[in-house]
Design goal:
Blueprint lengths: L11 E10 L4 E8 L5 E8 L3 E6 L5 E9 L4 E5 L2 E3 L7 H13 L1 E13 L8 E12 L7 H4 L2 E6 L3 H6 L6 H21 L15
Parallel strand pairs: 4-9
Antiparallel strand pairs: 1-2, 2-3, 4-7, 5-6, 5-10, 8-9
């Protein structure tokens, strides 16, 4: 698990004033005080948090979803993800639920890759990124207009770099999750070969 962000030195959060309450996010004016006593206000989005999952098949490909994203008016290729909108639900359980609902697979093994802050310049959203392996088919249970038009796309790990370079992959948490998952699986593959060390030799072809 990632270490928590460093505590601010001398800065103080004084409180929030709600300006908009949505079904998922809250927009607030957050008041702060700098170390020299200067007060300042920032627009901040409060978010319940999210999960994202890199589902890797037994033959070394990854299952992405192509779905419409209204804020950028485009269809994006992404790893399956979802908001932590069920109060009290552990993030691992949310990740398993989202994977089944969106992609139609269950994972026999789910491992936390990283806990990340998506856009800390204006939002407190924290996302748990998981690697899912040992996939087994199950029924989907998609909700929302966009999800009903979602398409599952199977992509070889070997194409990830080219897809980032040519703009087919532009979602930040998707790129991070894919790279972390690929590197972890490559290290494990090298470590499993008798007589091989973890020096990284031959890692690029491991997945």
């Amino acid at each position: 698990m990632s270490p928590p962000p460093a505590e601010p030195t001398g800065f103080r959060h004084l409180g929030d004033t709600t300006r908009y309450q949505g079904w998922r996010i809250v927009l607030v004016e957050a008041a702060f005080e700098a170390p020299d006593g200067t007060g300042f206000v920032r627009d901040v989005v409060r978010h319940p948090g999210a999960v994202a999952v890199v589902p890797v098949t037994g033959h070394g490909t990854v299952l992405l979803v192509r779905q419409y994203r209204g804020p950028v008016d485009a269809e994006l290729l992404e790893i399956p993800a979802g908001t932590r909108d069920v109060e009290g639900e552990p993030p691992e359980e949310t990740a398993r639920r989202e994977l089944a609902e969106e992609v139609g697979v269950r994972a026999t093994e789910l491992r936390l890759l990283v806990e990340m802050l998506n856009t800390p310049g204006f939002c407190d959203e924290r996302t748990h990124l998981y690697l899912a392996t040992g996939l087994e088919p199950c029924p989907t249970d998609r909700s929302g207009v966009e999800e009903h038009h979602m398409e599952v796309v199977e992509v070889p790990f070997g194409e990830i770099d080219a897809m980032v370079a040519d703009g087919r992959l532009v979602d930040g948490q998707t790129i991070l999750g894919l790279v972390l998952a690929r590197d972890l699986l490559a290290r494990e593959t090298v470590a499993a070969v008798p007589g091989r060390s973890g020096s990284g030799e031959g890692v690029s072809g491991a997945c």
